[in-house]
Specification:
The structure is a single chain. The chain has one domain. It has one helix and no strands. It is 80% helix and 0% strand. The protein is mostly helical.
């Protein structure tokens, strides 16, 4: 069964982008 959902992929992508930004901002503030 293939339950590929473009919307879920977009959400996961946004979440990973947010985490990357948090990592970068932490490195800058250090």
């Amino acid at each position: 069964m293939n339950n590929y959902n473009p919307y879920n992929c977009g959400v996961a992508f946004k979440i990973s982008l947010k985490q990357e930004r948090q990592k970068i901002s932490l490195e800058i503030s250090d």
